[in-house]
Amino acid sequence: MIRIIKAAAALMLLFVFWLLAPGAGVPLLAYHQVSSVPEVYSIDPDQFEEHMRYLSSHGYTAISLAELFASKNGVQPLPPNPVIITFDDGYADNCLTALPIMEKYGMKATVFVIAGQVGQPEYLTWDQIRFMQAKGIEIGSHTYSHIALSDLDQPKLMDELTRSKQVIETNLGKPVDFLAYPFGQYNANTITGVKQAGYVGACTGLPGLGTTKDDAYQLKRVNIPRPKYGLWEFRLRLLRAQIYAMLSPVFFK
Predict the structure, then answer these.
(1) Is residue 250 classed exposed, middle or buried when 0-12, 13-18 and 19+ CB atoms within 10 A define those classes?
(2) Beta bridge partners of 33
(3) Residue range 49-76, pLDDT digits in tens
(4) Contact assessment for residue 82 and residue 61, using Cβ atoms and an 8 Å cutoff
(5) Contact assessment for residue 27 and residue 83, using Cβ atoms and an 8 Å cutoff
(6) Biggest alpha carbon distance in the chain?
(7) Are 63 and 82 in contact (CB under 8 A)?
(8) Count helices and strands in the chain by DSSP H and E runs
(9) Is pLDDT above 70 for 14?
(10) What are the DSSP E strand ranges found in the chain?
(11) CA distances from 1 to 13, 45, 205 (A)
């Protein structure tokens, strides 16, 4: 009986070590708005600052998707404890509110803009986007009109992918290599189209860590909606992403 108890304790200890070990990959945090607007994908500025303070105090280094892929190709190594902060849709508060907070804690981000919404009320203008880009913010595409790509026929799919890329590149003078799927929806045909349009990688809404190893066009992210339980919820979401990353090779092949 004592041997059984010891064996069980040893197994439990191994499980705890496995659970706390870092998963393979980089956490990609998915934000939308940083505003007091009571929407599910809008978090208060003080909550966002709490997240940035936590990342800074725990030794995280914010990197871009370009840097993540450069490490994959052996161009440059990743820093210790990397994290990628992303924003979907391109709301004006990403520049007006989130950027000063990120700069305060030495962070940067990738902003996926809806090309057809730039300059519309509540959305970033091209001047604001260029300002953010000059501050080290990476700009990606969230398509032209923010429509579920998996619902589109091939001509419409390619129009959404190529038009947004061309519009952003024309206005910013830099290549747009990354895309985030609207609503996280995509399928095999979508991925083929994204490759044909010239994107290097794409982000989903699936939980987990981004690795670029086999999922350059299916990068997983840590979704960050309006929190109900404060900083603990943020920490638990990071932990859940680690768990998914460790379980996926075993259960989700």
Answers:
(1) exposed
(2) 42
(3) 999 999 999 999 999 999 999 998 787 8
(4) yes
(5) yes
(6) 72
(7) yes
(8) 9, 10
(9) no
(10) 28-31, 33-34, 42-43, 61-62, 82-89, 110-113, 138-141, 178-180, 201-207, 219-223
(11) 18, 55, 47
Q: Mind listing the pLDDT tens digit for each residue in 183-202?
A: 999 999 999 999 999 999 99
Q: What is the DSSP letter of 98?
A: I
Euclidean distance between CA atoms 98 and 36, whole angstroms: 12
Helix H or strand E encompassing 140: strand 138-141
What is the average pLDDT across 25-44?
A: 95
- The per-residue DSSP string of 147-161 comes to --GGGS-HHHHHHHH
Comparing CA positions, the residue from 30, 193, 66, 34 lying closest to residue 139 is 66
pLDDT score, position 162: 98
For residue 185, how many other CB atoms are within 10 A of its CB?
A: 14
Amino acid 19: pLDDT? 46
Query: Token pair for residue 89?
Result: 């849709």
* Residue closest to 65 by CA, chosen among 88, 90, 86: 86
Residue with more model confidence, 140 or 2: 140
Share of the chain above pLDDT 70, in %: 88
Give the Å distances, CA to CA, from 152 to 39, 148, 196. 28, 7, 15
- 26: which 2 tokens? 């980089």
